[in-house]
Fold this protein.
Amino acid sequence: MLRIRNGFKILWIVIFIFFLNPCYSHAQKEEKLDPDIFYQDFEEFISIIKEIQDKYVDEVGLRALLMNAYKGMLAGLDPHSQFIDSKNLEELKIETEGEFDGLGIEVIIKDGFLTVLTPIVDSPAFRAGVYIGDIIIKIDGKSTKNISIREAIEMLRGKIHTEVTLTVVHQGESEPVDITIERAKIHLNSTRGTRIVDEEGKIGYVAVTSFQDNTTADLDAAVKELEKQGMQSLILDLRFNPGGLLNIAVDVSDRFIKKGVIVTTKGRHKAQLHEYNAHRSKTYKNFSLIILVNNGSASASEIVAGAVKDHKRGLLLGTKTFGKGSVQSLISIKNKKSALKLTTAKYYTPSGTMIDGVGIEPDIKVDLTKKEVRGLHKHLARVNAADIRTNGKAVPVETNDDDKEKFVDKQLSRAIDVLKGIDVYSKNN
């Protein structure tokens, strides 16, 4: 096991590397750091490592200490920045491809607690009753206090057909409950529930549940099928959509907007300023559009919602979005065997409004009670499985023998009514 015997020798090597790093040099000029303080900080770092290796009750390798230090540094920045080792780097790549083993929930660290951003529609967690905003206080009896995102994901993931018990506190409640969930193969079907929801008005519906590599092509196929069915207007459901890839969010927005800015990202340096613009070539025809959003609509979902709202291309209906508007860059290190997932910029809508920590207000607010939100979970898992592209024809989607009363999706119903009103107005003018 490697031990630090000459702290100052290593200290000077580290300092030398930092001075050769152009990013550090820029930061040093910008912040006018005192070199003496800089040296003292690294002396302290080396001393702490040496004391741990010499006096901790168990032997600890230098590599383990450094790995924990990296994780702590990144976790201390914001809930989204992470140090990713080689094992988790492979898992992160799998996530963007749309299939993995686990529960199907997106989690973040919020106010120091492991919190559910949103469960993926029709995932095991979704069906088991894990809700937006749930605080996970234990995983299989182990406290999540001070846990990192990657550590949480490792505990939540696992082989299919194995079980995990989450101890959660639902929003607005004080008593924790245990929810035991069987892991499964999670297929991120990026679009679901494609159908005509109102035959008279020929109103189409499609839910986009994530922004992955195949999302734009899936949406194109859904819209094409709806147009074959005579669609005159569209409801795009982004509720419970935690986001995904920036470039895919831009592509999806581009389908609805002919020209102008879709989103801008801004960081500390000019190199992090990017403006993404629409192109006319692949834009859908100009049908009426309503986007359904809620507090589970985050990140890439908010890019689409913000662009459509600012360009007045359609209306947003539902409740305020989550407000996750920061850009994470994957920075490879150590021969690409590990990486930093580092927040490098923030999203701004076409009007210049920052999304992060703020969210986007809908044009038409339709609140749901806690009971209605929980009913919506079950409802969406059921009806969004009825997709005309996979069934070959429209199927009954509102029936459920276990329910004495048919669940009414208030937000969807209101969207249908608004689109009907728009249609009547356009015909009379």
The first helix runs from residue 7 to 20.
